[in-house]
Write a structure and sequence with these properties.
The chain has 778 residues and is mostly helical. Helix content is 60%, strand content 1%. It contains 32 helices and two strands. One of its GO terms (molecular function) is kinesin binding.
């Protein structure tokens, strides 16, 4: 059929498709046929936007100034939220200045009616908060008072709440209680959430005041409202348990703890460990989920409060025994809080240690080998600690390795592993682990202390000093740290700094005779005899059996020619060491110098009876008998016989006072080099060379004592005092037991003296011609 039009598509073939574009349209500008453009501006592009006419009117300027004030307020709030309280205060002060400038500008331009009361309130409120954050309580309270007195400002209740918080922070709990009560009266009942928070503050304040019954009433009313749909607050329920504990009511403790664990735990997404390695690169670029972080923080805080409450009441909640109390707490937690139940079991194991039930503690800790990785690490750390205390290095090393394997970022586990290596004399590897532990936990006092000890053992005293000085900043009152610093500075020849730290130690531990004796030695080395005598005398008053101190005082009185007083000290030394003849010989010499020859002769005869082979005593017996005109043939024959026997043995020396053939009592020539004193190394006694006497004692992870002592300071770790000091102790323990051990070998003073005539030289006795300092028992 023909004549049907274009749609029919007549002809022999199909009709080609027609264009859908409008006539004259081109996709690219400037191409194809040019449209109507009589001015020739087709290629110039769009016209620029019109410039706004600057408004310099007073009202516009006031608006700009108000924007600046708001920006400063927001900057102060952001700085406070990030923890930069100094910057927060600066920005708040700038906001105050800008706001006052804004008010003056409006007053001068007749715009007083435009004054923004809310902006002024915000400025004062921000400034007061910044003052409080910086600890400037007086300024903060004065600013809050300005806000409260201005009746144009709204929310007086909130102002009173903040003022109460400031009083609470400064310890003025009575005034804080007053402010919170006023706030509660001024907050409307409709603001239920704020009223509950004020009630919580009231309860905390009453606890601080010791008014537990009133606090219980307040807190119970808040907890009851949790059941009515209010947001649960774990801190309120925890404080209620504390009040019940303070009253000692076991039934109330049980009820309060059950209410605490019945509160819903804040929901937070658990991290997926399985996909952590696979998606590591993707997670690095993932945006920060602040909501998840907030929920996890709330969950961690709630778990901490439940754990603390469990540890608080477990030992006392059951009247039968403390173990039954722990079992009840674990049973309550096992269903809804299994992780916290495991934490309490670890605490129970450590409680067995406090009750000296070591086998039970080990048994319970070994049960965690089948638990979660986190609990495995904690249990292994404490098992390593126990085995180290028992001296089982092999088992300690095994469990320390397990603890490090399960949790490489556990500073306590690294410290214990380092202690095991110290027991095996692998000091370099131990040092690396202590450094790694410090890298994980910069304020780990156990790691820093043990690092100092290892450096001292390795002979790098400078690095040891650095470690102990860092520790001194963390725990400035630790006697062990002060001793180590004084000890090391003495070894390095820094006598003034050594005296400084030992003086700090004496101020901290006034009844330690060893430290007083050490200070006396330092002053004696500096030729300050008056101070040396004073400190030795103080040491003797506290510990009158230290032969080092007794010999110093005796020789000091001999040098001062106060022989009567010297006799009393040498007699005390003879009582302490009755098998040593030299002390009695020194007493006899004092009698001779006092010209009490009969007493001297009688004492020499008693000494000869007790020590018949002592050549020194026979020498003086022959001399004094001749001078007194008495027969001395018997003593002279014995002396000749002993000298012949000595010559026959190869000319061995007599050994000074009271030689009994023991090399430990070998004498040294008068005026020669002094032997070591107070643990100093080498003859000459030039300085105290520190020595790593005892192996470091490990730290018990998560023990209550560790929590108290560190931050405070700490806890069971390698605490080795230098040579001459008693057994190593935990740095948290008092230093009253830190004594210098009595020397096991007493060096004799004076060489062999042969006097044939007392009248010819009265001074030729035990002290004749000798450097008295060299005669001190070292």
């Amino acid at each position: 059929m023909t004549g049907m039009g274009t749609a029919a598509g007549g002809g022999d073939g199909p009709r080609p498709m027609t264009s859908v574009k409008a006539a004259g349209y081109q996709s690219k500008p400037g191409t194809g046929s040019r449209g109507f453009d009589p001015m020739g501006g087709g290629g110039m592009g769009p016209a620029p936007p019109l410039e706004e006419k600057e408004d310099s009117s007073p009202k516009a300027k006031a608006a700009e100034m108000e924007k600046r004030v708001n920006r400063l307020i927001e900057a102060s709030a952001e700085a406070a939220a990030s923890g930069d309280v100094v910057m927060a205060l600066e920005r708040a002060k700038e906001a105050g200045k800008s706001e006052r400038a804004l008010v003056r500008h409006r007053d001068s331009n007749g715009q007083s009616e435009d004054t923004n009361i809310d902006l002024t309130f915000s400025v004062f409120f921000t400034l007061a908060n910044a003052y409080a954050l910086n600890g400037m309580h007086t300024e903060a309270l004065a600013t809050y008072d300005i806000i409260y007195k201005n009746k144009e400002y709204e929310s007086p209740g909130r102002v009173k709440v903040n003022a109460g918080n400031v009083h609470f922070g400064r310890g003025d709990y009575s005034e804080a209680l007053k402010q919170f009560k006023m706030a509660l009266d001024q907050i409307k009942p409709a603001n239920k959430h704020l009223r509950l928070r004020v009630e919580r503050n009231l309860g905390a304040t009453l606890i601080k005041l010791g008014r537990f019954q009133e606090a219980i009433e307040r807190l119970e009313s808040v907890v009851e409202q949790f059941d009515e749909g209010s947001t649960p607050d774990y801190s309120v329920a925890f404080n209620l348990v504390v009040c019940y504990y303070a009253l000692g009511d076991r039934n109330l403790m049980r009820r309060g703890f059950q209410k605490l664990i019945a509160l819903p735990m804040p929901a937070a997404d658990e991290p997926e460990d399985e996909d952590a390695d696979e998606d590591e690169d993707g997670d690095a670029a993932a945006p920060r989920d602040e909501l998840a972080e907030y929920l996890q923080a709330r969950q961690a805080e709630a778990a901490k409060l439940v754990t603390t409450a469990a540890r608080l009441i477990a030992p006392v909640v059951d009247h039968r025994s403390w173990e039954a109390g722990y079992e009840w707490v674990v049973d309550q937690l096992r269903h809804d809080h299994p992780q916290i139940a495991s934490e309490v079991l670890v605490v129970k194991a450590l409680a067995h240690l406090k009750h000296r039930q070591f086998d039970r503690a080990i048994e319970q800790l070994k049960a965690f080998e089948r638990k979660e990785k986190h609990h495995k690490a904690r249990a292994a750390t404490n098992l390593a600690f126990l085995y180290l205390l028992e001296g089982d290095v092999e088992q300690a090393t095994r469990y320390a390795s397990l603890a490090v394997k399960h949790d490489r970022y556990n500073a306590k586990a690294l410290v214990n592993m380092g202690n095991c290596l110290c027991e095996s004399s692998e000091l370099e590897r131990a040092k690396e682990l202590f450094l790694e532990a410090i890298g994980v936990e910069a304020d780990c006092v156990e790691a820093i202390f043990d690092l100092g000890l290892v450096n001292k053992q390795l002979g790098v005293y400078g690095e040891a000093v650095q470690a102990f000085e860092k520790l001194h900043t963390l725990v400035p009152s630790s006697p062990e740290v002060l001793f180590q610093l004084g000890n090391l500075h003495d070894a390095l020849g820094n006598r003034e700094r050594a005296v400084k730290y030992f003086n700090y130690l004496v101020a901290r531990v006034k009844s330690d005779p060893g430290v007083l004796a050490r200070l006396g030695h330092l002053f004696s080395s500096s030729d300050d005899e008056a101070e040396a005598f004073r400190y030795h005398q103080d040491s003797y008053a506290l510990y009158p059996v230290n032969l080092d101190v007794i010999s110093f005082l005796g020789i000091w009185y001999v040098k001062a020619e106060l022989y009567e007083k010297a006799v009393s000290y040498f007699q005390r030394a003879a009582e302490v060491e009755p098998k040593e003849a030299k002390w009695q010989l020194m007493v006899a010499s004092c009698y001779r110098r006092m010209r009490e020859f009969d007493d001297a002769l009688a004492l020499y005869e008693r000494i000869h009876e007790a020590f018949p082979d002592n050549i020194e005593c026979l020498n003086y017996l022959v001399a004094i008998c001749r001078d007194l005109g008495r027969s001395c043939e018997v003593y002279d024959d014995r002396l000749v016989k002993l000298e012949r026997e000595q010559a026959a043995r190869g000319g061995a020396e007599s050994g000074g006072y009271g030689d009994d053939g023991d090399d430990d009592d070998a004498g040294f020539a008068p005026g020669g080099a002094s032997p070591p004193r107070f643990g100093s190394a080498g003859a000459g006694g030039g300085g105290f060379v520190p020595a790593y006497d005892d192996s470091p004692v490990p730290s018990a992870a998560s023990s209550p004592a560790a929590a108290v002592a560190v931050r405070s300071g700490r806890t069971g770790h390698g605490a080795s005092a230098a040579a001459g000091v008693g057994p190593a102790r935990d740095p948290t323990e008092p230093a009253q037991d830190m004594h210098f051990a009595a020397p096991s070998h007493q060096a004799s003073a004076g060489g062999k003296v042969r006097s044939t005539s007392l009248a010819a030289d009265e001074e030729e006795d035990d002290f004749a011609g000798a450097d008295l300092d060299s005669m001190l028992t070292e």
